[in-house]
Structures are given as C-alpha cells and as structure tokens.
C-alpha cells in the first residue's frame, strides 16, 4: 500500500506528516492502528508500552522533537520485533542505529544520538498528540513507506 497511491485515491481523507524522518529497519513500509505515547527525554513509559502485544499497531511517540537523547535503541527495538508492532514513529531520536537498521522493524525518527534517556516513567499514554502538522489519536490508522507518513480516521487496508 503506497502512500502516494493513498494520497491520490483519498485526498483530504489522509493527512501527511511533514517531518523529515530518517527511516531505519528492514521493513520498508507499514500500516496499522495508532497507539500513542507522549514523553520527553524519558523512555521508561514507552518501553513498558512496547512490552505489551503490538498486534500490528503503530506506536507513535511525541518526544517533543528532542534530538539530544534517544528514546529507543537496540534493546527496545527487539521488543518491537518480538511483540508484533507494525512500526514506530518517533518525534525524537534513537540510538544503536546500525543494529536497528538490521532488524525486522520499521523505525521513523528525526535523528540519531549515542546518549540514552532518563528512566523516570514521565509522560502519558493513549493521548492525542500533535507534530508534523497533524494530529495523532489512538485508533486512527497510520500508513508509512519510504515516501512518508500518513494518518487517517479510516482504514484503507
């Protein structure tokens, strides 16, 4: 399911996230219902969510756009793979990029950094978040490929 084809076929029913994401992992495209986490430079809550079954969902993380510290690395990447998450979109940074790129995962992020995050479990899950000019609500549908990221209220799968 190509994002370009979705835009052509569904116009305003799909919204484009206008951030310049880096794309890591062996999965080149993904789609699924959205799950959300809002956290800033702290990944404990995100890790706890990714330890749960993904069931083909897409984790969308508002890390406040911080590129100072990483919200995931190779160990959390293994959780994505093991727990059947379709992919993860991070408005923030990751680390262990070479290892993530070799995994059967899909990671969209803003940057890479070697610095790890704090572990205080600060943040919120299951909330509406905003970045890249669009709104992400739990249970919306995300569609992503090398061309970009779209969201919709409707499933086109």
Structure description:
The protein is of the alpha/beta class. The chain has a single domain (3-146), classed as Glucose Oxidase, domain 1 (3-Layer(bba) Sandwich), CATH 3.50.30. It is 19% helix and 34% strand. It is built from four helices and 14 strands. The protein has helices at residues 3-10, 44-50, 74-82, 97-102; strands spanning 14-16, 22-24, 30-38, 58-62, 70-72, 87-91, 93-94, 107-109, 111-112, 124-125, 129-131, 134-136, 141-145, 148-152. Strands 1, 2, 3, 4, 6, 8, 10, 13 and 14 form a nine-stranded mixed sheet that branches. A three-stranded parallel sheet has the order 5-7-9. Its EC number is 4.1.1.112, 4.1.3.17. Substrate binds at residues 73-76, 95. Its cofactor is a divalent metal cation; Mg(2+). InterPro entries: RraA (IPR010203), RraA/RraA-like (IPR005493), RraA/RraA-like_sf (IPR036704).
């Amino acid at each position: 399911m190509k994002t370009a084809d979705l835009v052509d076929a569904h116009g305003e029913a799909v919204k484009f996230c206008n951030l310049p994401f880096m794309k890591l992992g062996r999965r080149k495209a993904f789609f699924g219902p959205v799950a959300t986490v809002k956290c800033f430079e702290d990944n404990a809550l995100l890790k706890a969510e990714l330890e749960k079954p993904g069931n083909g969902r897409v984790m969308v993380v508002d890390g406040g756009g911080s590129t100072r510290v990483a919200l995931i690395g190779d160990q959390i990447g293994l959780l994505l793979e093991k727990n059947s998450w379709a992919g993860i979109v991070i408005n923030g940074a990751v680390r262990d990029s070479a290892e993530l790129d070799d995994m059967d995962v899909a990671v969209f992020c803003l940057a890479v950094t070697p610095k790890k995050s704090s572990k205080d479990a600060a943040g919120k899950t299951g909330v509406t978040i905003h970045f890249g000019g669009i709104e992400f609500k739990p249970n919306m549908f995300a569609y992503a490929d090398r061309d970009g990221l779209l969201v919709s209220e409707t499933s086109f799968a």
